[in-house]
Amino acid sequence: MITQNFEETNSVLNTFISEIRDDRIQKDSMRFRRNIERVGEVLSYEMSKSLSYKTQTVTTPFGIKEVRIPDEELVICSVLRAGLPLHQGILNYFDRAENAFISAFRKHINNTPEFEVVVNYFASPSLEGKVLILTDPMLATGKTLENVYKVLKTHGTPKSIHIVSLIGSRLGVDYIEKIFPKDTQLWIASIDNILDKNGYIIPGIGDAGDLAFGQKL
Q: Rounded CA gap, 208 and 201, in Å?
């Protein structure tokens, strides 16, 4: 897997991530969602440089101009519910992409830190021969992406896979590297070194879904 960790590059992206992490600023759920959306836009721009392109002729009011535009069939697949703002940011830039959604949640066993990832909703077009953009804002253990990938494979074999994430743990990144094809590209804003016994990223940001959309039962 090819990992693009943008924490290692000085850019305005770090401003959005700092506000997403800040326990005071993140209490504003509208600003929290917008910052995630903006991270999706920045990562989409960077990812667009790796796509295939074709030349297209455009007629302006004063003449003809050849431009290079992406030549790919894209499918954006997001993990509900926390992935929705990130999905929107990517869709803002790849507005002609097809869309897929999948729900995956941690089901704790006997109220212990041990859990399994359960997938119980999936809606997707065919992935055969297309570029799959898989979004999951928090790449903690990597088990969610592992289970999501198992389900996605029932809808065809993508031409290539791009994973877009806000924050991951080093353990989670290493884990999915063993699961996904070698040419998979990970576009991630920041990687933290610690994953606690409950499977949460430290220092992380907290629960992205709750911060974006309110607490759940």
A: 11
Are 163 and 184 in contact by the 8 Å Cβ rule? The answer is yes
Q: Tokens 């065919």 label which residue?
A: 126
CATH code that applies to domain 2-50+72-212? 3.40.50.2020
| Calpha distance 97→106 (Å, rounded) | 29
Digit-coded pLDDT (tens) for 28-64: 999 999 999 999 999 999 999 999 999 999 999 999 9
Q: Which residues are registered as beta bridge partners of 194?
A: 202
* Terminal CA-CA length for the chain: 36
pLDDT band at 204 (very low <50, low <70, confident <90, very high): very high
User: For position 131, what pLDDT does the model report?
Assistant: 98
Question: Measuring CA to CA, how many Å separate 114 from each of 108, 135, 141, 203?
Answer: 6, 24, 12, 20
Q: Specify burial of residue 85 (Cβ count, 10 A radius: 0-12, 13-18, 19+).
A: buried
Domain residue ranges in the chain: 2-50+72-212
DSSP alpha helix (H) spans, the chain: 13-21, 29-48, 84-93, 143-152, 170-177, 208-213
What is the distance between the alpha carbons of residues 104 and 61, in angstroms, rounded to a whole number? 50
Question: Is the Cβ–Cβ distance between 170 and 204 less than 8 Å?
Answer: no
Give the bridge partners for 209, in sequence order.
none
Q: How many residues does the chain have?
A: 217
pLDDT at residue 108 tops 60: no
